[in-house]
Write a structure and sequence with these properties.
The structure is a single chain. With 295 residues, the chain is mainly α. The chain has a single domain, classed as MetI-like (MetI-like fold, Orthogonal Bundle), CATH 1.10.3720. 73% of the residues lie in helices and 0% in strands. The chain is built from 13 helices and no strands. The longest helix is centred in the first third of the chain and has 35 residues. The two termini are 33 Å apart.
């Protein structure tokens, strides 16, 4: 009797949270999908059914092609750069470096600030101006006679989005470092010692022992960084504003919805972003649940 009473009491306590999640997440997702299937344009709601017309128009839109290309470029550079740099930093800190606590805090600090702040700082660092107006990294390269590194950064045709990915790598590599450092510290020292006794080099230990053990960490970092890159918006706006060569789906969605009042198109872009994130997260969740069930 008391067990049933506690069960009902617990259910009553969590019902407000369940209701809030259901309404403000799942109901709004369903509403957005419904809007994406309508021809709503303007401030007056218009739920006239148009089916997949908004989606078909998007895939035929040259601007959306630019968005997809920029997203792929940004994702590849950002995810690979953050994982590689984060792993290297973790390996360095795992060597018993003196002042490890200071460097660990230093590497993690960029993660504590928002993408807006990062964008403002890197907008100055990647100032593409030349001559007397040169500043930031270009001025540093010029001062140390590395003139071949002076470039136009985010204003470079076709590859400007890659420069913005550098700012994202700077911010998130510390987070990846923390993930890998925790994974490295969980590896038994006996495994490394046994490999050394068998004559394995340090490179072979990392190649055949450490990296395979850290596969779940790499997968987690890949999922987290991947979904961040798909939704990138504020970093690009802070660095370069709204420019077509640097356009991504999130910016297109904002302009379609709030600037152009094309609510149907904006909802369609948002739905596609949701699907792209789900493609990353759902397999990861299944893998995690499967791994936990096997323990």
């Amino acid at each position: 009797m008391f067990k049933n009473k506690d069960r009902y009491l617990s259910l009553i306590l969590v019902m407000p949270s369940i209701a809030a999640v259901f309404i403000f997440i799942y109901v709004f997702i369903g509403w957005s999908v419904r809007v994406s299937l309508s021809k709503w344009k303007g401030l007056t709601p218009d739920y006239t059914w148009v089916g997949l017309d908004n989606y078909l128009q998007l895939f035929a839109d040259p601007r959306f092609h630019v968005d997809i290309r920029n997203t792929i470029t940004f994702t590849l550079i950002f995810v690979v750069g953050s994982i590689v740099l984060g792993f290297l930093l973790a390996v360095l800190l795992d060597q018993g470096l003196k002042g490890e606590a200071f460097f660990r805090t230093l590497f993690l600090f960029p993660m504590a600030i928002s993408f807006i702040v990062t964008g403002v700082v890197w907008r100055w660092l990647m100032n593409p101006a030349e001559g007397s107006r040169m500043s930031g990294l270009n001025l540093l390269f010029s001062y140390i006679n590395f003139d071949f590194l002076v470039n136009r950064w985010h204003t470079t045709p076709n590859w400007g989005i890659a420069a913005i990915a550098l700012a994202a790598i700077w911010q998130m590599s510390g987070y990846t470092m923390a993930l890998y450092l925790a994974g490295l510290r969980s590896i038994p020292q006996e495994l490394r010692e046994a490999a050394q006794i068998d004559g394995a080099s340090e490179f072979q230990i990392y190649r055949h022992i450490v990296l395979p053990i850290l596969t779940p960490v790499t997968l987690s970092a890949l999922i987290i960084l991947g979904h961040i890159s798909l939704k990138v918006f504020d970093l690009i706006i802070a660095i370069a504003g709204k420019q077509l060569p640097l356009d991504v789906p999130a910016i297109y969605m904002w302009q379609s919805t709030f600037d152009g009042l094309f609510y149907g198109r904006g909802a369609a872009i948002g739905t596609l972003l949701l699907i792209s994130v789900a493609v990353l997260i759902i397999p990861y969740m299944r893998y995690t649940l499967k791994s936990e069930s096997q323990l």
